[in-house]
TrEMBL record:
Belongs to the LacAB/RpiB family. Keywords: Isomerase. It comes from Parenemella sanctibonifatiensis. The keyword Isomerase applies. This is D-erythrulose 4-phosphate isomerase. It comes from the Bacteria. GO terms for molecular function: intramolecular oxidoreductase activity, interconverting aldoses and ketoses. SUPFAM superfamilies: Ribose/Galactose isomerase RpiB/AlsB. Its EC number is 5.3.1.34. The lineage of its organism: Bacteria, Bacillati, Actinomycetota, Actinomycetes, Propionibacteriales. Pathway: Carbohydrate metabolism; erythritol degradation; Carbohydrate metabolism; D-threitol degradation. GO terms for biological process: carbohydrate catabolic process; carbohydrate utilization; cellular response to carbohydrate stimulus. It catalyses: D-erythrulose 4-phosphate = D-erythrose 4-phosphate. InterPro entries: RpiB_LacA_LacB, RpiB_LacA_LacB_sf, SPI_LacAB/RpiB.
Length: 156
């Protein structure tokens, strides 16, 4: 069974969002792509879009997301406000790999003003191809991150 992906972008990244969504729709790892917008002519600030997408993942309505803005940083910060969501900007292949394999992140954030569209599409393809191994040495670190969200850290 493939992944259910949610994509969203603010006005600074509509072009890349559309390109990434089209790329992911062709992926063997993806069953569905939900586009939350923005679409041409709409005007919604990125925090609202990123939180909406992150809440979909948290609710089990999507498995992962690719969120875009000018730099990727604003949507990452916003998505991380949703407890249980791990989102990060990554603009290279190694970082995308570690985003999933080391951190079990659900959201890849990209910046249209920072990288080219072909790189954005490649990174999104790579992001959906990785699967976190809950038996890996990174599992304990992910559990530690999660424990801070509940207010019960294992150690400080």
């Amino acid at each position: 069974m493939g992944l259910r992906i949610v994509v969203t972008a603010d006005a600074a990244a509509i072009e890349y969002k559309d390109a990434v969504a089209a790329e992911l729709e062709k992926s063997e790892y993806v069953d569905s792509v939900t586009d939350l917008g923005l679409h041409a002519g709409e005007d919604v600030d990125y925090p609202h879009l990123a939180v909406k997408g992150a809440r979909m993942i948290k609710a089990g309505e999507a498995d992962r997301g690719v969120f875009l803005c000018g730099t990727g940083m604003g949507v990452a910060i916003s998505a991380n406000k949703v407890p249980g969501i791990r989102a990060s900007t990554a603009h290279d292949s190694f970082s995308v790999e570690r985003l999933v394999l080391s951190n079990n992140a659900q959201v890849l954030c990209l910046g249209q003003r920072v990288i080219g569209v072909e790189l954005a599409k490649r990174l999104a393809r790579e992001f959906v191809s990785y699967t976190f191994d809950p038996q890996s040495h990174s599992a304990a670190k992910v559990e530690a991150i999660e424990s801070y969200e509940t207010g019960e850290p294992e150690q400080a």
